[in-house]
Amino acid sequence: MEVRGDLKIVAGLLLRSAVLGVSGRADVVEFHREGEVWRPFPVEYKRGRSKASDEDRVQLCAQAICLEEMLQRDVREGALFYGRSRRREQVFFTRELRENTARLACAVHDMLSQKRLPAPANDARCPGCSLLEQCRPGDAAGRSAFRYLESLRAET
Fold this sequence. Notes:
The chain starts with a strand and ends with a helix. Helix 1 crosses helix 2. A hairpin with a 4-residue loop joins strand 3 and strand 4. The chain is α+β, with helices and mostly antiparallel strands. It has a 6-stranded mixed sheet with strand order 1-2-5-6-7-8, with helices on one face. A two-stranded antiparallel sheet has the order 3-4. The protein folds into 2 domains: about 110 residues, 3-Layer(aba) Sandwich (Trna Endonuclease, Chain: A, domain 1), CATH 3.40.1350; about 40 residues, no CATH class. Helices cover about 35% and strands about 30% of the residues.
């Protein structure tokens, strides 16, 4: 932990939410002093650039929901830091973003309980992906989460 006056910075903070059924590790959580209270402010670091889709904002929102549940304190906003632009993008955790985050968490749980994987994107990102051989985006027939996880376990 690093302390700079009215700012505490914690890297690698373990997070969990029983409500969403998720756990993970935050890149950074800043705690800003507001009077006697420390307000959590999650910051997620990304190598690329800002996306039009919500995937990065959903990830950050899930971290905020975890923090709220763990600390019993409202988390209204956070930030995404993109390495390409070297800038922070402020993210407000709106009702719509929170609902989308909860809906996606439920969808992942449903998918896992049915032991299936989503169809691979099979787009321009695939050739540079470290999981290309495991994913095999051109061969989606007969894919299941169970077989995929078993193949990964067999490799280790």
